[in-house]
Amino acid sequence: MQQRNATVAVIGAGDYIGAEIVKKFASEGFTVFAGRRNGDKLAPLVAEVEAAGGRIVARSLDARKEEETTAFLNEADKHAPLEVVIFNVGANVNFPILETTERVFRKVWEMACWGGFVTGREAARLMLPRGGGKIFFTGAT
């Protein structure tokens, strides 16, 4: 595989869609910065990507925290130009509407909406001066 001088940041590198996105970009020669709330759960993904010859940097990341997201994207961009950002945070809860409390709703909103807004804004701040890049919002929420 030919290594690229470019990074991809995956916010919400979970066990399913997020992990597959990470593996695909790593197999295409990108250095992938993978973040999720419990970064320890990224160890098997790191091992798999590295065994296949890919490059990955794994971090614990809470997308609800603006400073963490900003630092994560800045670190990726400092490693090599940030070309792609994927926001794949899953904020699913399984409550009937009448049992959904304000607290639960706000946490889901923070993860899915606020986190997505911050990710898109900060990615654009890094990409626009170079005149390009891609930002994708995926997930089930």
Structural summary, described in words:
The chain has one domain (7-137): Rossmann fold (3-Layer(aba) Sandwich), CATH 3.40.50. The protein has helices at residues 17-27, 43-51, 66-79, 102-127; strands at residues 7-11, 31-36, 55-60, 82-87, 134-137. The mean pLDDT is 95. A 5-stranded parallel beta sheet has the order 3-2-1-4-5, sandwiched between helices. The longest helix has 26 residues, at 102-127. The protein has 141 residues and is an alpha/beta fold. Strand 2 (31-36), helix 2 and strand 3 form a beta-alpha-beta unit. Helix 3 (66-79) runs parallel beside helix 4. The protein is built from 4 helices and 5 strands; from the N terminus they run βαβαβαβαβ.
Helix content: 40-55%
Largest sheet descriptor: 5 strands, parallel
SSE order, one letter for each helix or strand: EHEHEHEHE
CATH architecture: 3-Layer(aba) Sandwich
